[in-house]
Prior knowledge:
Blueprint: H1 3-23, E1 35-39, E2 43-48, E3 53-58, H2 68-77, H3 98-116, E4 121-127, H4 129-140, E5 145-149, E6 168-170
Parallel strand pairs: 3-4, 4-5, 5-6
Antiparallel strand pairs: 1-2, 2-3
Amino acid sequence: MNDDEIQEMKEVASLIETVYQNKKGLALNLPDGWRAEEYNSLRGVAINDDKKEVVLMLRGLMLDKDPRDGLILANMLQRNFRDDSPGLRGGVPGYQDTYGRDLEIVQEKLDQLKNIYSGYDIIIAGHSRGGAQALHIGRRNKGTKTYAFASPQSEYEPIPDNYNPKDIKIY
Length: 171
């Protein structure tokens, strides 16, 4: 990677870290030029008007902070992170399709951001489970810049040949 790519990777990683900060109840430490648009327990949205970029950030599991994450993990272990996996329909009662439902929610949010921020680059980025979600959604939305950090999915499903390597980055 060149210096610009390293800087870009660090900036996106620090944005994802803010979703963890939010879940822990800490103050958000956004990089210069970024503002927080929306945060909840699983994701955040940050905007940089100067760069004309919007980043949808997705966190991984936090077993020590969210007991539901343990049930989500049990569901994830029964699937291989692919859309056609039988794990989408199995798992812990009440959490059978948590990952699949979350993908639908992330897709809806991405579509909403594309409509609201027309003319901005919409980026999806995630860590661990969030990285797997980012890869799923990035593959479905050709041309959406996607960053996945420590994603378990990267071992199961290679990037399709028709994608520009600049669109999907796995770290």
